[in-house]
What does this fold into?
Amino acid sequence: MRRISDALSDGSTAPAISWQAYAFHRFKRSFQARYTARLDALRCPAVPGLVSIVLPVYNGAEYLHESIDSVLRQTYTHFELIVVDDGSTDRTPTILDEYTRRDVPVRIVHQPHQGLPRALSHGFRLARGEFLTWTSDDNRLRSNCLEKLVDCLRRHPDWDMVHANMDIIGDDGQPLRNSSWYGGYQTPPGSEHIALPADPAVLNIVANNTIGAAFLYRSRVDFLLGDYSPFRLGTEDYDYWMRVNALFTLRHVDFPEPIYEYRFHSTSLTTRDEELGITRSRDGLMVFEDARRDFYQTPLGWIIGDDGSPAARAWAGRVRDWAAAAGHILFDQMPLDPEEAYRLWFPLVALRVTVDPMEAAAVPALPERAYKVLVMAGEAALPTEAAPAWNMCIATSPNMSPPRLSSPRQGWLAVSQVAVLCTAIDIRVKSAHLACIEAEIADPPTPVLKISVVISTYRRGAQLADAVRSVARQTFRTTDYEVIVVNNDPSDTSISHVVDALRRSEFPDRPEQLRLVTCPSKGLSFARNAGTSEARGRVVSFLDDDAVAFTGWLEEVWRAFDVFPQAGVVGGTIVLDPPAPSPKWLRPGWEYLWGHMMLPFTKTKQVQEWWEFPWGGNWSATRQALLAIGGFRSNYGRRGTDFGGGEEVVAATLIQRLGHAIVVAPCARICHAPSPDRYTLDHVWRTIWTGQLTEYRERIDLYVPDIPPLESWTQRRRERIKSMLALKSPFYKRLEHGMYAWALTHVAARLREDWRERQRLYALSASAHTGDEATVTPLE
It folds into this structure.
């Protein structure tokens, strides 16, 4: 075993990428462990070599001629320009009519005013090209812009999107020098030349859109990601680039010269940032992006069927094997009806594999909520029409040229590798599902109750009954709340019997007040999200299945939200009820290791610091705040009988970022009664150990501010060792300090490993971009 001193040594002073960049690299590493990193084997129904350029315009008459003419002067001539007039009321329609009378590759589309994101989506649904980009009505492309971008993507077939450097210009079209715009990227300082960062690692972590306006991406990106978000006016491009960066390969071009001219003027969206609140809206976007990266790594629910032919059966088996290896949910292997699965945060895909082309025209008899994918496994010619009910049509033959179907992005796609096929389906289904989540955030249903109590359970039927009874006997008016039991083990059918009995005994007049939801994805965060998904209350209150609530619990929770209308989270007191007789080694001061939390004040108050935030089995939040942060993070929280945690603190920090208050109400009390078999010294050790590691994870995942230097962790360890060696202290206290010291040793070793990896990644990044004018990820 390595000596502790070795594990705590800093090792090297070599430069390292920032913690922000490191957080993104760890996401990519985790994502690519489940999914293929290369999608270049996926073929889309696009015109080879054609560049589709979308130009959305709304009252842009002043510079529109310049923008369109810059496209028409391109040295790369195999392009189509799709101009989407978003209900302009100035001279824009007249100007566009001039181009319709000329022999130029320009298609004019008029629509009622719907905003920039919808105008972009309309244009890209019409695009036919292998390569896609868009430009603004006030900017200009250099004559070699498309040629340089296309050549770069052709040199790098595994790159999905590239972006390039640009120049900034003023109202008059002349270079804009000594400007404050892009100040940190002006090369040289004060010039109009903007050299954007080469490494996009912090794009998804730090609120700073560094992609610029010169970019090109492949049609597979559009086919899998879908529309630009209609809820991100002013940040629709940034939102899309972050999605590309998370799921695909986004790179700076391999040449330094600027190929685009970006104009700043008094009516541009960028100049109107303060008026439109573009920068302010980024806080919500960055929180949602954090949720999105978590969601990308969660399981799909798969319903897989075939027509019985050998080819179809073989492909269905390969998909089933891939899904199982990736940790996804296979409904043919569990006693759960897909129609009964919870709605939000659990996407369903229904896959039908066939060799019969006639099935494309058939309306599939599949669950209504599922995303429906048709896979053609044979060599028969593909039909040019498919029933609109099929969301996605894929052919597996390596020799087919996939025809384009009439519905936007319906297909046909072609791929002969099961990993690429399944990755493409996963991206497409989750992208569509996230759009539904965004829509509910923007327009949530009106709550019909004040509170929804969610009790998640995993094989604890007997204790669950006590928890439900305590909620049924609240002094809170019964018509103002509901109880949702979430069964986190579909194989445990006894829970449904427990719930049925409790409906009869505790809710005889209102049986609908007690509902049962089944969550097939293991983990407390998944289960809590399932309950939140189905909740009809304004507030969602979470109670552990081995706890009982004091009769006034819900009244105090609701009172706290009423007194603090800006509150997003309310927590309360947790009183430990140890077994009788309690173990002889259980000493006063150890109660917190089983969730005991006595607040150091008596009145409800707002707290500011993360270490003051409520946690554990007495935690409530508004449903709207939970929706806005994308729910609990799935990689935190207990799974089965392990010792995970931290999901409540993470959720509270994110809710606070959105401007909500975090409140603690001492009078909102519950009693926690863990089963006697959890009172072991092993429980003490594992709780301490996982608690320290969870805090470290919260820091390097950037939920908790500041990552203390190695010296801080070693100092904490020294203090624990000093306390451990204090002979006058009781033995159990010395034992506790020793456990903390050993846990901190593990944390320090983990920090040292992370430092080494950050240094390695910096060296790789610097080496990859040697000679480029674009900069590598900055140091922390």
